[in-house]
Amino acid sequence: MSPPGTSTALPRVSLEHVVETPENVVLTYQLAGPAARMGAFFIDFVIRIAIFAAFTFLAVMTLGRFLPALTVAMGLVLYFALDWLYFAICEGFFRGKTPGKHMYGLRVVHAAGYPISLWEAVVRNFVRAMDNAPFILFLGSYGVCWLTMLTCGKFRRLGDMVAQTVVIEERRVKVPKEPIILEKIQPIPRNELGGWVPAPTTMALIEEFLGRRGVLNYVRGHSMAIGLARVLATRLDYKGPVSQVEEYPMAFLARVYATFYRVEDDVLNIADEVRGPKRGKAGRTVEVAT
To answer: Most buried among 51, 116, 184, 227, by the most CB within 10 A?
Structure first.
């Protein structure tokens, strides 16, 4: 019997893969379970069968009547490529993903947290033959794979252990976006600006940055904004305090956004106010923006 006060519950199996980088950044990955990996493998299996069936049909209809031996040889080469190279090429060149893994939101990464190389993709998939050994321990097709995934931790098969890889589920995170309240931002006075007007793409970039300001701390936000703030101050011929740009670049971007954020017609009016109207040939006022 266990001493009083001690817990007899079994240790909880962790479904997370935690990695600490040399920069002391902790990364947490969600491990892919056997069910999701089996579904992805089935999708890839169907794709391989479809490719082989399509090739066989076309080859028989074209070369089969005249060069039957060549047709059989090409079929064997394709079968070898689909069986031995399909997974290695897909995972090596498409960031650890096959079409099946992409549909299920899975990815193969190195156990240290970084993307796998082509060599690691080749190693883990060439060992697949051992995972699929049908007569070892009388476990049936992929029996060794299931046994190692359930007993060796991290849901790794033999290929994963040899190549030092894990299969994870991708987390699709939507970064929150906060509205920009223009009424609380003071625009830049016209006498502190030159004649240049930011392009719509520049305004969209500022809006996207300010909308994500809630996920940045003070230091990180200003370090990201300082470059754009300096460029805009130069292009705008900003005559205000330099400290506004150097010490508070995020606030300066917000003031630029509040100054020039208008519907298209209002943007043209701003340019007209800054540079003054130009007279056309017919004597009418022409609003110009750059």
So the answer is: 116
**φ and ψ at 279, to 5 degrees?**
-90, 130
Position 8 in a domain: no
Structural domains counted in the chain: 2
Q: How many residues does the chain have?
A: 290
Phi and psi angles of residue 143, each rounded to the nearest 5 degrees, phi first: -65, -40
Q: Split the chain (290 residues) into runs of 10 and give each run's mean pLDDT.
A: 49 70 74 90 94 90 82 90 92 93 93 90 89 61 78 87 91 66 82 86 85 76 86 89 86 88 50 48 35
Return the pLDDT at 163.
92
Last residue of a domain, one of 120, 142, 169: 169
Q: pTM score > 0.70 for this model?
A: no
Which residue, 106, 105, 132, 110, is CA-closest to 121?
110
Q: Which of 169, 204, 221 is the last residue of a domain?
A: 169
Q: What pLDDT shows up at residue 180? A: 72
